[in-house]
Write a structure and sequence with these properties.
The chain is mainly alpha-helical. Helix content is 76%, strand content 0%. It is built from 7 helices and no strands. Helix 2 (31-39) packs across helix 3 and helix 6 (98-107) packs across helix 7.
Length: 135
């Protein structure tokens, strides 16, 4: 059970930050939108604070638990870059990412977020199945 505590606390902090941004600024905590606005020069202090908070997660995790979690990436760097670009294109096409649609959109019973989240999940299952088949 103790192996799940870091994920549980991380999820709780993510939810807390999303709710705080919604209550304090009236905005959805979609990471792709926040990064897009930051790069576009819009509301730089607020967007920069949110991104800095995200980037400070791993160092804070190490301070709390003594080491970084073991992560193994069992594919090529090229495939990781292609996957990242595909995710970026998908977030623009769906007007949001998994954090905006999946966390706050579903909590607000947004039909668009429900459709987007179902599409994210189905696409992930399809790609994972295809990649396993191509091995």
């Amino acid at each position: 059970m103790s192996a799940y505590w870091p994920s549980l606390f991380g999820g709780m902090l993510l939810g807390l930050s999303a709710v705080a941004l919604l209550l304090l600024d009236g905005r959805i905590a979609g990471i792709s939108g926040i990064v897009g606005r930051l790069l576009g020069g819009v509301q730089i202090p607020l967007n920069a604070a949110f991104v800095i908070g995200l980037l400070s997660g791993p160092p804070l995790y190490m301070l709390a638990f003594g080491s970084f979690p073991a992560v193994t990436i069992a594919t090529s760097g090229t495939l990781v870059v292609v996957a990242g670009l595909a995710v970026g294109i998908g977030t623009r096409m769906s007007s949001g990412c998994t954090s905006g649609h999946g966390i706050l959109g579903l909590a607000r019973f947004s039909k668009r977020s429900f459709a987007a989240t179902v599409t994210f999940l189905l696409a992930g299952v399809a790609v994972a199945t295809l990649m396993e088949f191509l091995r």
